[in-house]
Amino acid sequence: MVPHVPYHHGSRAVQDLVGVREAADHVGRSIGDGIRPVAAAFLEIQPMLVIGGADPAGAVWASLLTGEPGFVRATGPHQISVAGGPRRADPLAGALAQEGTPVGTIALDPRTRRRMRLNGRARPTPRGLAIEADQVFSNCPKYIQKRELPPGAMPGRPSAPRHGVKLTGDQRAFLAEADTFFLATVHAEGADASHRGGNPGFVHVPSPYELVWRDYPGNSMFLSLGNLTTDPRAGLLFLDWVTGMTLQLTGTARTEYADDGSRTVRFTLTEAVETFGASPWSWTAPEYSPANPGQED
Q1: From CA 83, how far away is CA 107, in angstroms rounded?
Q2: Which Gene3D superfamilies does this UniProt record tie to the protein (predicted)?
């Protein structure tokens, strides 16, 4: 019997191009549809969850959901609930108000450099969201900056979102100093949310309409780049870890493969949404991952 491999042809094409199909098959065995007790316990201590998907018009976004620990929890071996759901003004609010919306989620804990991804179908509930899992898996701690979370949420409410079709000077400066962002991508059967990290400056902003970053070696799955091979739509989420401001970007992305084996992703902006105070949490300054290129051990 041929074992089930959780990859579509886009991911397979990238794996074959890079020469990591065997490694991808090995790692792919860790992808299941069940939430193990250790994963359920991890979710229950998280103060934030990133969710990715397409809005009713087809634009792809990554959004930040926050709450007191326990706002995300497993409600069965194949389902999680999210209390509160997205803000009414969030770009994904309309899609998440519908039944069966394909979503990708990632719970990333800077305190422990652990992360867990769960992809599936969302539906609204009286308290927020429920997500039925199709894929559940964890990733290594590579490129995650360590941060602590002092107790107590910041007072105040999120501002009204500010929309734009190009990046402002302040936004470009903020992106150029970022050490972390989240990437939402989609394919014919679902969606995915992943993490990208590096030292400040790993994201380049050559114009008000374009972002560029190097794709660092990872787990060989190539879920995100595989999705972009078949569907270039993408959503990016940047968080100001101190003030709680979020900058959400939607557009398209393509991957460039160099002869030396390096990969570069170029993102072209369609719309930007900036929200001050979107997160109530203020994290400490980062301890950069020793895996970051250029980082001293």
Answers
A1: 15
A2: Electron Transport, Fmn-binding Protein, Chain A
pLDDT at residue number 296: 53
Residues 6+ apart with CB under 8 A from 6: 28, 31, 135
Mean pLDDT, rounded, of the chain:
94
- Tell me the C-alpha distance between 249 and 228, whole Å: 16
CA dihedral 87, 164, 104, 253 (to 10 degrees): 180
SS3 96: helix
Query: Above 70 in pLDDT, residue 5?
Result: no
Give pLDDT, residue 2: 38
Which structure tokens are listed for 211?
Answer: 């972002």
The residue type of 127 is: R
pLDDT tens per residue, range 129-164: 999 999 999 888 999 999 999 999 998 889 999 999
Cβ neighbours of 3 (radius 10 Å): 7
All domains in the chain, ordered by first residue: 9-275 (2.30.110.10)
Q: Is the pTM of this model over 0.85?
A: yes
Distances (CA, A) of 190 to 100, 118, 122, 185, 223: 10, 11, 11, 9, 11
Residue 133 · residue 192 · CB < 8 Å: no
In contact, 234 and 60? CB cutoff 8 Å: yes
Overall average pLDDT of the 233-243 stretch: 98
Residue 40 φ then ψ, to 5°: -60, -40
β-pairing, 233-239 with 210-214?
unpaired
- pLDDT tens string 29-47: 888 889 999 999 999 999 9
Among the listed residues 280, 235, 250, the one whose alpha carbon sits nearest the alpha carbon of residue 84: 280
* Residue listed under structure tokens 């998440």: 96
CA nearest neighbour of 105 among 158, 30, 53: 53
The secondary structure of residue 21, as a DSSP letter, is H
